[in-house]
Write a structure and sequence with these properties.
single chain, elongated, mainly alpha
């Protein structure tokens, strides 16, 4: 039966078991049935990305959009392709488009913020992390990276405020306890750092 959903569904299933070449054939069969299937073009874009052909992948994404297929995952995928090509501005533009459609996607929020951090755009990264904390409050990474940037900027009071909020929300997350101790050490508050670690780890720390 020449139902496009069958070919697309089969292609997705084949990708999930790493049968990439067979999946590509199935998506192309879907296009044979309907040459205007934006969904089929999108899946072919993902296949091209998996094969390392980013230029072809971007072309397929453009064809998907031209045929009315747009969603957060499409723009996220496109952003990652541009990021792999070291095109930071185009990557960020597409991450922002994805987040306009699905602001609660923590994976997109994090990808965007990490790219901003790698590009040394710390203030923009802080804005992105604030958005991540607001829209994805159950993910500790937003707090962790915000604390990291604030510490690098020597904005210790703000970093401590973030950590205190994080520790209240994620009391068992060891990373925040280490972050807190690091900030105290950077500020040369050694005794306070030792007391803090003894309090959380219920152990005595010997100063050499």
């Amino acid at each position: 039966p020449h139902h496009i959903e069958i070919y697309i569904g089969k292609g997705i299933a084949l990708v999930n078991i790493d049968k990439i070449e067979e999946a590509e054939k199935s998506f192309k069969k879907a296009l044979y049935v309907d040459k205007k299937s934006g969904e089929a073009y999108f899946h072919l874009a993902c296949i091209a990305g998996l094969k390392g052909d980013l230029t072809q992948g971007i072309t397929y994404v453009d064809m998907a959009k031209a045929n009315g297929y747009e969603n957060a995952q499409l723009y996220f995928t496109l952003g990652m392709m541009y990021e792999e090509q070291d095109n930071v501005n185009m990557a960020l533009r597409n991450y922002n488009k994805a987040l306009l459609l699905e602001p609660v996607r923590a994976d997109i929020q994090l990808q965007k913020c990490q790219l901003l951090m790698q590009s040394n755009r710390r203030e923009e990264a802080l804005e992105g992390l604030d958005s991540m904390i607001e829209n994805c409050p159950d993910y500790f990474e937003g707090y962790h990276f915000k604390c990291q940037i604030l510490t690098e900027l020597e904005r210790y009071e703000e970093a401590n405020a973030v950590l205190n909020a994080a520790l209240a929300k994620f009391p068992e997350e060891v990373g925040f306890k280490l972050d807190k101790a690091k900030i105290l050490i950077v500020q040369e508050k050694i005794e306070e750092a030792i007391h803090f670690q003894e309090q959380y780890y219920d152990t005595e720390i010997e100063v050499l």
